[in-house]
Amino acid sequence: MLKVSGDRQHDLVASVVVFLVALPLCVGVAVASGVPAELGLITGIVGGLVTGLLPGSSLQVSGPAAGLTVLVYEAVREFGLPALGALVLAAGLLQLAMGALRLGRFFRAISVAVVEGMLAGIGLVLIAGQLYAMADQEAPASGLAKIGGLPELLADTFGSGRALAALALGSGTVAVLLLWRRLPGFLGTIPAPLAAVALATGASLLFSMPVATVEVQGLIDAVQPPGTGAFGELLGLGAIGTVLAFALIASAESLFSAAAVDRLHDGPRTDYDKELVAQGAGNTVCGLLGALPMTAVIVRSAANVQAGARTKASRVLHGVWLLLFAALLPAALGLIPVAALAGVLVHAGCKLVPVRQLAGLWREHRGEAVVLVVTAVAIVSVSMFEGVLIGLALAIVKTAWETSHVHVDVVDKGAGPIRAHLSGNATFLRLPKILDALEALPQDRPIELDLTDLRHLDHACRTSLENWAARHSAEGTEPVRVASGV
Hints:
alpha/beta
């Protein structure tokens, strides 16, 4: 009994900590996604009360994530807010299907460079977009336009008192986030995002700063179940791509987060297939409510573990606290400056860009670094879905090239047949090297072609070697003798 009581006490404390971390992030992600702030809270509530109750990973916490902000913003802009629920619902059902088919473990095979490049691209677009929000300005639509318009934004900001006030609040928020952990004593234990947003809100009220604040419409009014017309949007190619992007990116981020959380504690390990089902169930409910898509969030999950959580009760209770706040204190949201939430997301976006890791990766694995950078640039330049596809294609090509090493050793003792020995993996990617070496052999000498040490010989190489042997044998010499082991 004492052990159970101790677990409950630890879980209660942890749930409050996670609630305080999640609250500003739920609101900030919603505002940055171009949807009502309450929809972020709804997703956080579902992450606690639905996903939190299901088996999978016992200590990681789910909710709206900065990593999906850019994709949600693009989806709302293209298809409209009423269609968001249908898109998220379809993504949730797809995740449920993948979990039922036990595909969760296969997400561990996704190139880490592609995932880090995806997050870096999201981070860059998120930072650029939220810099406009920090100055109470409207951000351009595309990633390149956001980045290209920053010099003009800077000039416009210094010409407007309102923009300067908002920028001061946003910059102050980022500064608090960076410095808060260094504070001694009790203050340092307060979650930095909550402290930063609370201080910015207090400053804006104290000095009556003319800045934009979060628009509040109430929790019930924000719920927008998708109508029949919204499901018609799913028939388009663009909508299908968005659903796939929601499902795949949310699943990958959740399962990578689960692996990271497992390293933080000694409790039960994650069942990846069950976790994928839990995420799918949560996104299905979020879709039915017209809310944001969810994923497991490493910031909240790490806070949960570090606060001493023992069981899934902590993440369920954090959903309860979010529900009580949204139901009892909705007007408090209307006091929060948008610039402060933008500062929180700029800070979150910076964490998504692995600057330090990239330098080490370039020294040790340059191919992986190239995949990371190309994926990030493609996401910024084109879009989320196409950028990830480009990164995956490049990772596959790089892997195929690296694993297709083949060695051609020619032994000529001056008399008798020339022996050509091939070893490694003979694929079409290395065909020019193989044929250059064989075609350079004398036409008037017998040839022994030894393939016994090849680990792999694809159809293209086999056909080309057979054609070369036939041509060489037609020159009037002895037929090429081939020893094959594959």
